[in-house]
Structure formats: C-alpha cells, structure tokens
Design goal:
Elements lengths: L9 H6 L20 E2 L5 E2 L4 H14 L10 H30 L3 E5 L9 H8 L2 H10 L4 H5 L11 H15 L4 E6 L7 E5 L2 E5 L12 E12 L2 E5 L7 E5 L2 E13 L6 E11 L5 H5 L8 H7 L12 H30 L5 H4 E6 L6 H12 L4 H11 E4 L10 E3 H7 L1 H20 L5 H7 L2 E2 L5 E3 H8 L3 E3 L2 H9 L3 H6 L4 E3 L6 H7 L2 H11 L20 H26 L8 E6 L8 H17 L8 E6 L7 H18 L8 E6 L4 H7 L5 E4 L11 H7 L3 E4 L5 H8 L5 E2 L4 H10 L3 H6 L2 H11 L12 H8 L10 H15 L2 H13 L6 H13 L5
Parallel strand pairs: 3-4, 3-12, 4-11, 12-13, 13-17, 17-18, 19-20, 19-22, 20-21, 22-23, 23-24
Antiparallel strand pairs: 1-2, 5-6, 7-10, 8-9, 10-11, 14-16, 15-16
Helix pairs in contact: 2-3, 2-5, 3-4, 4-20, 7-34, 10-12, 12-13, 12-15, 14-15, 21-22, 23-24, 23-30
Length: 852
C-alpha cells in the first residue's frame, strides 16, 4: 500500500525527511541547544532572560493572538510553550541531519502508552533554560510555576508501562540514540478519576480541549489502515503465489509529532502519535436523505480508534475496538519506518542493520504478521527472506507473568478483522511446529504448549507466543522476572530457543524524578558532591559518606520536611485533611490491582488503628498513609478496595483519639504531575506486591532515589534494589516466590491463616461487622470472601510478616540519626537504576544502536 500523501510539505521535509536528509531550518545544530554548566552546576542554555522575554512576547502576539493587556494565564502558558518549542526545533532538525549523514541506526519504540506528563518544565530542565525563562516571565508579571500548573498531563497512558516508555524516550535522546516513539494520539485518556462518597467515578479526560502547543500535526504523513474483507490468492501456492487483501474498511492514520529533547539538549528525538480519520467525512447521500446520524456513522466508527485509551474489552465490541487500536498504530508505524528506510537505503535487505524495533508488551505484537505482510504482499519478497528480516528487526519486552495479561485474540475475531494476518500467523505456526518436529520426536502436549494457537480456550491466538517467535530478543524487566519467564510463561519456547530471553532491568530518568521533582534535594547534592552526578548518576554514591554528617543530614531532612509541607497543602486542598509534616509519610502510589496489594496495606492500617485505640501509650510512629491510583473501570474488586481505603480513612480522621497519630488519605486522579508532588515527600515506599507477580516496578526506583525507605517483598526490581542499597537499608518481609508457589500448591486457605492470627482475625471481624461501613455491613464481603478462600494474592498469608516489618519501620523512625542514614544511603546507591543504564544495555546487547 502506498502513502496517501506522496508530496510532503516543506516542514515534513525539514523534520521528517521522507524524501531526503533534513537540513537545518535556521542556525546550526547547536544554536541555542549545546549547553554548558551554569555556576550552580545545572545546565545553562546561554540564552538570556531578555532573549526569552522577546521570544515569549513574539509568540503571545503572533501565535496566540493576544497582547500583554489581554492575555490570560492560559495564553501566557501557550506563548511560553511555543517559545520553548522553537528552540527545541533547531536541535531536532540537527539531530536528524546527523542521523542521515552518518547513516546511524534508528530505534523504533512501539508502545500503546506514553505517560509523558507535563512538557514545559521537562523541556526547560533539559534545555537548561528554567532560570532564564522564570526571570523573563517575572519581568512580565507572570509566574512560571503558576502557568506550568495549567498544562494538562498528556492523557496517553495509565501506569508503569507508559511511564517506562516516557523514561526510555528521554534517555534515548539524552544518549544521542536516534529514535522514534510510536503510539496513539488518544483524544481522551483512560478517564479522570473523581471520588464520590469514596467511590471511584470515571469522568472524561479531555486533555486536548485547549490545544497542544508541543505537537506538529503532519496531515501529509498519512497511511491507509485496512480492516475486514477477504483475501484472494493469485498464481498458485507458496513463493509462486500472491495474496491480495480486499479490505471492507479503510481508515487513515495521521501523524502528530512531538520533539523529545535529551539532557543538555545534545539530541532531540520524535514521539510520533497517530490519530484515526475516515477517508470520507460523511456519506453525502445519506445526509441528503435526512439521515444525519447515519451519514456520520462510518466516520464515528473509524475515529473511535484513537478516541479513548483502553476501551472496556469485556464486551465483544470492546474487544474488537482494542484489536483495531493495536493494529492501527502498529501498521501505520511499520509503513512509516519502512518507507523511511526504503527512501534512504533503497531495499529491505539492510532493514535489520539500520532499524531496531522494540515491542513494549504484547499490544503491538501484531507487528510480526504485519511486517511479514508488508514485505511479502506489498514488496514481493519470498517468505524465508521476509521471515529472516522480520526476526532480526523486531524485539519484544514482556511485562507480565500473569497468563490473563498476555493478550490473546479469538481466531474468529482476528479472522474477521484481519483475515490476511490470520493466514500469516497460521503459516508462521506451521513453519514453527515443522522445525520442531525436524529436530526430534515430540508430543501432542508439548506441541500444544508451543503452538501459537491455544486450542483449550475456544481457539485463540497467543500474542505473547507470536511476539516471542518473531523477535530477535525477548527481554524481561528485572532479574527475577526474567528468570520466571524462562520457567513459566515461556518455558517450552525457551527450551526450543535457548538464549533468546535476556534481562534488561528497568530504570527511570533522573532528570524528571530528581532534578525536576525535587529541586531542593538536587541543589543540596550539587553543593555537597559537585555537579558530576547530573551527567553520571553513578556518581551519586559520593553522597554516601555524608549519611552521618550532622550538617548534611539536617539539611537533607529539611528538604524532606519542606516537600512534605508542600504535599500537605495538596492533601488539604483535595481531600480536606490536615497533615503534620513531622509524621511519617507512608506512600503507596500505583495502579489499583489485587496483586499490588493495596488491600494488605489497608488491613494493616485497620490493625494499627485498633492497636492505638487499645493502648495509646504504645510507641507507634505517627503516620500519614497516602494512597493514589486508578482502578480499571470494570475492575469491581479494585474499585471496592478504593472505597474501603476511603471509608477507613474517614473513620480514622473522625476519631479524635487517633487523628494526630494516624491518617489515611486517598488522593484522586493520580498522574505524573501528582507523582512529582508525592515522591519527594515520601518517607516510606510501599512495594508490597505478591512475590513473583510484579515484573519490575519503577515507582520503587523513583521513591528510593528521593530517599524513601522501601518496605517490600522480594519481588520484581526490589531484589536488585536490595543488592544495590544493601539489605540493611531496605525492609523486606513476606513469602518468597517459591514459598508463594508452595503455598498455592498446598491449597491453604486464607481462613486457615486467619485462625492462627488473632490480630488479623480482629480486623476481619471489624469489616464483617460493618464498623467502617455502617450503612452497608455487607459492602466489603466480596473482598473478604476472596482472601478468606484461596487467597490467591497471599494477603492473609503475608499479613503478620507485614505487620512485624512495619513495626521495624516504627523502631527505625524513633531513631532519627539511623533513619536519615538509611534514607541518604538509598539516594546514594540508586544510580544503577537510571534509565540511561538500561538504554545503554539495550543499545549494546539487543539493538546494536549508537549511544553518545
């Protein structure tokens, strides 16, 4: 299929380079972009406040159409964003020039989520322009902090998957690795979370209502995306035949580009997001007949593809829309990158040499079949050559060990929506099983486990298996997770293809999660150990000797206190609850899910409440338990956990006997910006997932970097955190992964555990009696039934161990010198968890892509 727009505009030529290498729009590659250190050690762009002032005023007038007399705060935000974007563009074009001129390999990161947060503060930090822009705005009577708050978080993700993708994109740019991020430009996010009487309510998340100054719409960069229809086979079978797909429906994918500047602006990459449009704006005949709604029905169906993040897939229509979304952005991205490669290198034989594609989870795994289709059907390549190119170009990151989270599609649905792709998948499967049979005898059971088609659950295509087969490398995201992949979900495939699974432990970008989120601590570290850690996170270890220095400890603790005061204002404004910064801020912020065990945390809170009531003289640390996170709209138990947390919090806050010693708050509408407020203020980081179920986690890294002490299970990256920070500087509790497996195999119920735990039994009885839900005593029965039965997430099994671990935290808090020593050592030893390290490993060991 051909591009719908064969004549790109001049902007697309300059930035996208469809038909030749880009050239600088103005200035040089380093014009306003190549930064050196400022006296404080933070980067400085070299542009003066006066220059920024002129730029902002120019944009206010000519881009926004306002004067200083008529401008509202939103206008000032827009003008500032446009002025900053202008400075990024020079580096953006210059980065592309270098990539073309030097023939550098590109990385293409496919992800259904990119949780990029606000871009104004992020861009200013990386460009070294924060201080100058702040000063420029001050001369105009405008506060940078105030207008920054007006920027909505880009509603392009929900959790760790999207935040990881954003960190990776920023690190790719910081390491000067040429890269594109590919995803969907959702017009509505997952939802805006409101709490109504403690219940989650989902509201539209219309983040684009006032426009997006960071993106460039590319109406000339458009590709046809086809669905349904039939496949015609012409000219025989095998390599001599040719398949022609006659689709029943066509959409158009339109590109929207956002520049992603790296640290110190040395390199700028592209986040390219696709929006869906109909070929025909309306059915004019139907409209003229008076069928005004019907005339727009086809358009509405097409444009629904990029309307909402994660449509509810409990219905058949929801499942089809989800599949259409995933194929839509995957196909558009593959068409885009293959066109770019063919323009520059003239043939596809060299595609693996110049392109590395990373599939972030199973969502874009249809790329295996789509790349094969493009090479075979559209470009006339033989099967074996196409398969060789595909399997040397694609790579796959697995993020889950839960079989239900490894996507699969019914054969009926896939065949109806993507008939040609189902044929290709069958062919891949046939070749795969044939090769296995050629290497020795096998069994039906083994073949069933290895097959791409699951015959046991209504004939479904296993997308994780498809991604595994089509990938050059398959990676886990923590050492434990990777080893469990080899032993569980991909056990048989790993036996047939040994060495294909590798580990790449996740990381986070320190630019956002330390430099931007915690400027107080960053300034203290620069002053104390010098600015070298800004470019080399491993140099943070130089702060370790100061963990016992009284002056440094006092200043470090003061930074935390000031951050807690700031967070306390947010809690008061959003929840109406007053908090004491002298209390221990105990934080669990993540997607609400039973395996992440927010329920365990709430049950321990109830037990602590009861213990304080029984004996107010006990030496429990005063605590503020802080929860935040969204539940999937259809996840009934997770929504019930949110309600329980809120009911418990309201009961505690209303009880004068404990309100100064214990509080529970649930902050609504968790997103990146809220995380940036919470993370620097956290004293304790709750990483308490059931062992063997959290692939990695990155919240643990963000919180640890800012000095929060981790209480957690030996799950995901907690294992590597213990190694890096030292087992004496982390609070570990609970069953290990083998013990969880043994417990499940033994069939021990939660009720049996409760019988041996008086403290937990009392908590359960309080919930059964409706002490926290007097209006509906049976409200939490579904939660109790789940944990008292099979207790699949070991909430009961780990309760007593968790309680004891929390009392160790109390004891540590009671010794301030010991507490701050452990906190500082956490910050000092988190350098290894930089996403720069992760990306260097990907580049060296999977992608073969350049860095720096």
């Amino acid at each position: 299929m051909t591009n719908l727009a064969d004549q790109p505009t001049s902007i697309a030529l300059a930035v996208d380079g469809h038909d030749g290498p880009p050239r600088l729009a103005r200035g040089g590659a380093d014009d306003g972009i190549g930064f050196g250190p400022s006296p404080s050690g933070l980067p400085s762009s070299g542009r003066t406040a006066e220059q920024w002032r002129d730029d902002i005023l120019d944009k206010l007038l000519y881009e926004v159409g306002r004067t200083t007399q008529t401008a509202a705060p939103q206008d000032w935000y827009q003008a500032t964003a446009y002025a900053v974007r202008d400075q990024i563009v020079d580096g953006w074009v210059g980065s592309r020039t270098r990539t073309y001129d030097e023939g550098r390999k590109r990385v293409y990161y496919f992800s259904v989520e990119f949780l990029i947060g606000r871009l104004l503060t992020d861009s200013l930090c990386n460009m070294g322009a924060t201080a100058a822009v702040r000063q420029a705005l001050n001369t105009l009577g405008v506060s940078l902090d105030s207008i920054s708050e007006l920027e909505p978080d880009a509603a392009l993700g929900n959790g760790g998957l999207g935040r990881l993708a954003a960190c990776f994109m920023e690190s790719l740019a910081s390491l000067s690795t040429p890269a594109y991020g590919y995803g969907i430009r959702y017009e509505q996010g997952l939802f805006k979370q409101a709490l109504v009487d403690g219940w989650q309510r989902e509201l539209p998340e219309d983040w684009l209502s006032l426009g997006n100054p960071w993106e460039f719409k590319r109406p000339d960069v458009a590709y046809p995306i086809c669905f349904g229809g039939v496949v015609e086979h012409i000219g025989g079978d095998g390599d001599k035949g040719r398949a022609v797909w006659h689709p029943a429906e066509r959409a158009v994918a339109i590109a929207h580009d956002t520049p992603v500047p790296g640290w110190r602006g040395r390199h700028v990459n592209t986040l390219r997001l696709w929006s869906a449009r109909s070929l025909d704006p309306m059915q004019l005949e139907a409209f003229n007949r008076g069928d005004f709604v019907g005339a727009l029905a086809d358009r509405a169906k097409i444009e629904a593809i990029s309307r909402v993040l994660y449509p509810n897939d409990e219905t058949e229509a929801g499942q089809e829309l989800r599949l259409r979304q995933e194929f839509f952005f995957t196909s558009a991205s593959l068409q885009d990158l293959t066109r770019r490669h063919l323009t520059q290198y003239k043939d596809f034989a060299s595609l693996p040499d110049y392109c590395a594609i990373q599939l972030n989870d199973t969502h874009p795994s249809i790329a295996v079949a789509e790349l094969m289709r493009l090479l075979i059907d559209e470009h006339g390549m033989a099967w074996d050559e196409a398969w060789s190119i595909t399997t040397r170009t694609l790579n796959y990151t697995n993020h889950t060990l839960m079989p239900e989270a490894l996507e699969s599609w019914s054969v009926e649905l896939l065949g109806r929506v993507l008939p040609r792709h189902l044929e290709i998948i069958y062919q891949i499967n046939w070749e795969h099983l044939r090769r296995i049979a050629e290497h020795g005898p096998t069994t039906d059971a083994r073949n069933a486990a290895l097959s791409l088609i699951d015959e046991q659950h209504g004939r479904r295509v296993r997308m994780g298996h498809l991604a595994f087969l089509g990938a050059h490398r398959v990676n886990g995201v923590s050492a434990l997770h990777t080893e469990l992949m080899r032993q569980t979900v991909f056990k048989e495939l790993n036996e047939v293809y040994p060495g294909k699974i590798v580990n790449k432990t996740n990381g986070i970008t320190f630019r956002r999660w330390l430099f931007e989120a915690n400027p107080r601590l960053t300034a203290l570290l620069v002053e104390t150990i010098g600015p070298a850690f800004l470019d080399d996170p491993m140099r943070l270890v130089e702060a370790a000797p100061f963990a016992t220095d009284p002056v440094f400890v006092e200043r470090y603790a003061r930074c935390r206190r000031e951050n807690k005061i700031s967070l306390g204002r947010i809690i008061r404004d959003r929840c109406g609850i007053a908090t004491d910064p002298a209390s221990l801020f105990d934080v669990q912020i993540k997607r609400i899910h039973e395996y992440k065990r927010q329920l365990l945390n709430v049950l321990e809170t109830v037990a602590l409440y009861q213990a304080i009531k029984d004996d107010p003289g006990q030496s429990f640390a005063p605590r503020v338990k802080i929860f935040a996170g969204k539940s999937a709209a259809s996840y009934v138990r997770a929504k019930l956990i949110i309600k329980l947390a809120n009911d418990v919090g309201h009961r505690i806050d209303a009880d004068p006997a404990v309100r100064d010693r214990l509080k529970l708050v649930f902050l609504p509408n968790y997103n990146v910006s809220l995380a940036e407020d919470i993370v620097p203020a956290a004293d304790l980081s709750e990483q308490i997932s059931t062992a063997g179920m959290e692939a990695s986690g990155t919240g643990n890294m963000k919180l640890g970097l800012n000095g929060a002490i981790t209480i957690g299970t030996l799950d995901g990256a907690n294992v590597e955190m213990r190694t890096n920070v030292g087992e004496e500087n982390i609070v570990i509790f609970g069953l290990t992964t083998p013990e969880v497996q043994a417990k499940r195999a033994a069939g021990i119920t939660g009720a049996e555990v409760v019988a041996g735990s008086p403290r937990l039994a009392r908590v359960i009885e309080a919930l059964k009696a409706g002490e926290f839900s007097p209006d509906d005593k049976q409200r939490f029965a579904p939660l109790l039934d789940a944990i008292l039965g099979a207790d699949p997430f070991m909430v009961c099994a780990d309760f007593d161990s968790y309680w004891e671990a929390q009392r160790r935290v109390d004891a540590l808090w009671a010794d301030p010198a010991a507490w701050w020593r452990v906190s500082i050592l956490n910050t000092a030893h988190m350098g290894w968890f930089s996403s720069d390290r992760t990306i260097r490993e990907y580049c060296a060991e999977i992608w073969g892509a350049p860095t720096d």
